[in-house]
Amino acid sequence: MFCDELDELGDRVVSHVVDTADYGVPQRRKRVLVIASRVSSLDCRRRLTAPRKRRPY
Length: 57
Hints:
Number of helices: 1
Strand content: 25-35%
Structural class: alpha+beta
Largest sheet: 2 strands, antiparallel
Number of strands: 2
Strand order of the largest sheet: 1-2
Shape: elongated
């Protein structure tokens, strides 16, 4: 819904589900990351990836 409204307003929208543990947060929580731009096109084929590193927990 939210992404559709942004698209109707002329924004280019990409959304991904990310696990915060992949970004250094010591809990496994899934979050939706929404990126919108009116200025440039977004590459939807490329997935957002977290840096691969060993977690201390």
